[in-house]
Amino acid sequence: MADFRSDTVTQPSGAMKERMLSAALGDDVFNDDPTTLELQRYAADMLGFEAALFAPSGTQTNLIAMMSHCQRGDEAIVGQQWHTYKWEGGGMAVLGSIQPQPLELQSDGTLALSDIATAIKPDDPHFARTRLVVIENSVGGKVLPLQYMRDVAALAKDKGLACHIDGARLMNAAVAVAPEHGITPQQMARELCDGYDSVSLCLSKGLGCPVGSLLLGSNDFIARAKRVRKMLGGGMRQTGILAAAGLYALENNINRLADDHANCRRLADGLTTLATQLPALQGQLTALPVQTNILFTDIELPLAEQLLPYLAERGIKLTGSNYQSANGHIKRLRWVCHLDISSADIEQTLQAVAEFAHRTL
Ligand SMILES: Cc1ncc(COP(=O)(O)O)c(C=O)c1O
Fold first, then answer.
1. How many domains does the chain have?
2. DSSP letters along 15-62, please?
3. CB-CB contact of 281 with 274 (8 Å)
4. Which residues are recorded as modified (N6-(pyridoxal phosphate)lysine) (predicted)?
5. pLDDT-derived band of residue 107, with 50, 70 and 90 as boundaries?
6. 332 lies in which domain range?
7. Is 28 domain-assigned?
8. How many CB atoms lie within 10 A of CB 243?
9. How far, in Å, is the centroid of ligand 1 from the Cα of 109?
């Protein structure tokens, strides 16, 4: 079985579970859970921040960040497709009374610097106070490059705004671009965060933990964030059992993300080859470029409606969304590679697609 729906589906490994079972525990709301304190220190040191805060989910660390940077009536600049804007139930508006100012994404996943600058409102009672810029990296599997990250941070600083990274998959971005900078993924991640006021880092995606996300920032910011976490119901007690998984993941599961990226590229190349060679797929299936662990493929809708159940019957799960192109109705399928997808799973998946194409002809 290959579950490509998300990298959130990973199961904790035996070694991770052992670490969890032997974790020293306290009460994190009283700030005395030793394993949680150790995880927060470890992550803050790795990414170059003063402090960190453990919370149940990436949605919550993002919301805590936005509510800690902004007051009621402030505004946050976001991307139309950012998770913080589109996929978190409108939490910043509903729970934070923060006005989102969404901007269109460029094809490389960035927000144009000129669009950000133009969106910043003058200090005028007609307008919400622009207070925060949110960036997502990686975004839809694309990596926002180091220079771009620095340019956004510099722009925000110049305009007196705070800036936050939704780094749910920051480590995927870091692993992808570290080689071209000649540094380790950990050093790369630190560079990508340089100049930002806060970052949210998910432990339960590619890093393979069952639960958890970290918010990183200055001591003052994390003190404010802790109050917001409590208000949102995210203050948990014997969190060491979860933090131990986080420590295991940060120590062992960062560099191996390169395997997921290689699997994803192999899947893209294999599907492209099948789409070239097999008449049933010719002109019907296009694999979009892969930078990290997420591949999107565009498939003509009628074919996709046959392919998805065929794969599901063979235990191959994936998600997709429909859109209308100039040439007709398309299904864009999302294939996410992760810790629990092996290279053998990739070959079996390609084999299943090839068999489907032979039968369909
Ligand atoms: C980019 C991004 N940010 C934040 C989140 C939220 O994480 P969680 O599911 O832990 O709330 C996700 C989840 O998929 C995500 O993809």
1. 2
2. HHHHHHHT-----GGGT--HHHHHHHHHHHHHHT-SEEEEES-HHHHH
3. yes
4. 205
5. very high
6. 257-360
7. yes
8. 33
9. 17
Domain boundary among 220, 252, 284: 252
Residue nearest atom 8 in ligand 1 by C-alpha distance: 58
* 259: its two tokens: 């395997």
The burial class, CB within 10 Å (0-12 / 13-18 / 19+), for 171 is buried
Identity at 265, one-letter amino acid code: R
* pLDDT bracket for residue 360 (50, 70, 90): confident
What is the chain's alpha carbon radius of gyration, rounded to the nearest angstrom?
A: 21
- Tallying the residues shown for the chain, one arrives at 361
83 CA from centroid of ligand 1 (Å): 7
User: What's the pLDDT tens digit per position in 73-88?
Assistant: 999 999 999 999 999 9
Of ligand 1's listed atoms, the one at least distance from the Cα of 59 is 11
Point out the domain boundary residue: 200, 223, 252.
252
What whole-number distance in Å separates Cα of residue 90 and Cα of residue 83? 10
Peptide bond into 138 cis (omega under 30): yes
> Residue 195: which of 153, 136, 167, 160 has the closest Cα?
153
